[in-house]
Amino acid sequence: MSTPYSLLLAFDPQPLHDAAKNWRGLAQAVQAATTQQRAKVHAPLLNSWKGNDAQAAFAFMENTEEQFGLVQSNAEGAAVVMDTIADRIYQAQTNLTNAVQRAQQAGLTVGDDGTIQQPPRTGMDHHDPDAEAAYQALDNTRGDIQGRINTALKDAQDASDQGAKALGDLHPDFLTQNTPYALDVASGNASNALAEINYTGAMPDGKDPQQNATWWKGLTPDQQQAYISLYPSAVGAMDGLPTVARDEANRLVLDRKIDEARYDTGIAYGSADAQARLNSLENIREKLDANSGNDEMHQVYLLGIDPDAHNGRAIVAAGNPDYAQNTAVFVPGMNTNLAGVPDQVNRMKQLQGVAEQEASPGDKTAVISWLGYEAPSDLAVTSTHNAEAGAADLRRFTQGIRVAQSPYECSHLTVMGHSYGTTVVGAAASADGGLHADDIIALASPGMDVDHASDLNIDPNHVWIGTARDDPAQEVDGALGAQPVYQDFGGSGSSSTPMGMTVTGATAVRAWRTRPGSSLASHLGRPRHRDHDEAAPPVGCHPLDRLPWSLHEQPVGQGCSAARQVEERRPGRGTADDRASGAGRRHPDHPWPRQGAVHPLRRSQRRDGAGRPLRPDVLRLQRRPARAASGGRSQGS
């Protein structure tokens, strides 16, 4: 009759590992099928097929992808459980055999049930002090080894029981039953299964990007895929992890939230909020899928998603920042919510396209929209609370960008904010070492939660201020920090000489376009004038000219016809004086920021209602002039 002792001695872990390999192969197959369907089928059709038939087909495809998600979650869970239990029972077996060998070396005999028998004592031993001492020592050794054997047997039994219960938590019948919240329930069951075997103990808390990255690099590829499949919410939110891993994890989260929202919509039938939430999530997924067939630097990556937060939160990237020479992080402002994420994607792709045209040949660019905070709903807000609440998350995110990048790249990082987003940028940049950025851009800022540009932990010459002539954000003065449009705020606009701007910095402002209702809409929503009596020229046919807003210099009192010659810098070099003095270098070991054309700053003689002079050379958004008939770009007239 077999006993636990004999069964453990004879245990072979290979069949369990083989079964785990097969389950993992199934999970990888459906994950690859999902990727292929999105890139080769779904994305091309989304961009070309419209109508009722298309909608029905897309719904079928999405249902298929959700079924793939169910299979992936359960299969990956089964693989992890089997591998983990096999390893633990094998470790118990190793401990047992070591204990048995030690018993044999001590002259002790282990019975078939694992009990150690001690040799009988002779009558003479009682009268021999040395023999008595030896006997007691042997008895102590026997007790120690018996304890090791018992522990090994218990560990093996516990692992077997935990594995059986964990596998029982996985339900393969999701494919044949219409289960409400199926993706969420399957994820919960898989998490419960892993909790049964205490699988998550080594996962970091996610607060330190460097620690996150170190943990991730220490995992095998199979382990990494398991964490993505089984803990997508945790992995997707970890700054410092590779972009592709976070994107895959967050798409799983998005699929589950859509599945959840569909049932919520049915329960709350007629609820506008429930339907709006579902529409927002489906529109985000559609935007992601539509770009799935692009190359790595032109795909859209989902780096964060939390529809349960107030107004929703999402982080999307146009291009992979891990391999970009130029990276821009854009923080949107007031009235931004989950429903606006698809428009944010369009805007980021537009910024990326312009930056790529002006960057050095071969340089790659990634542009990220970071809605990782609770954006206030109107301009009347006069508190920095939301900005300060999101500041630490933004700092952690930009640090994570640096950590996750290829060791052969040190991307030029520009952080830009619009409206209240500049307040978030200011709050993040001014504390705990700042944002690790090379340039900071503030568009339509109501205040940056600081008194001076020098408080942003960056060279003030790399702080850029942009605003519309009649932007109401300028009227919010004091409550959110000093107004950047005033000369005494400092930054690049405080100098009377032309200032340099990085490729990503200049093109970010050049390509910026707002939606109706935003604080810049009054400036961008209708034809503007360069001066009060001079109409802006028509938009030309150059790809950059098709973008309606650009930076141009207008020296004080001389009009556009006196625009100074644009200074040129060699990409990545700066001027000779700059290189000699080290000006502009962010870190001793950081390469010189890549430079493109230096855009002089337009001058303004405006004063506020109290007669205080606004800064003389704040960046202004203007229409780009049409190209000359010869094919070159026209100069300001």
From TrEMBL:
Pfam families (alphabetical): Abhydrolase_8 (PF06259)
Biased composition annotated in UniProt, kind: Low complexity: 627-637
Compositionally biased spans, kind Basic and acidic residues: 565-580, 606-620
Domain DUF1023, residue spans: 309-476
Top-level taxonomic group: Bacteria
Region of interest: Disordered: 509-541, 555-637
InterPro entries: AB_hydrolase_fold (IPR029058), DUF1023 (IPR010427)
TM ranges: none
Name under which the protein is recorded: DUF1023 domain-containing protein
Organism: Kitasatospora acidiphila
High-level lineage: Bacteria, Bacillati, Actinomycetota, Actinomycetes, Kitasatosporales
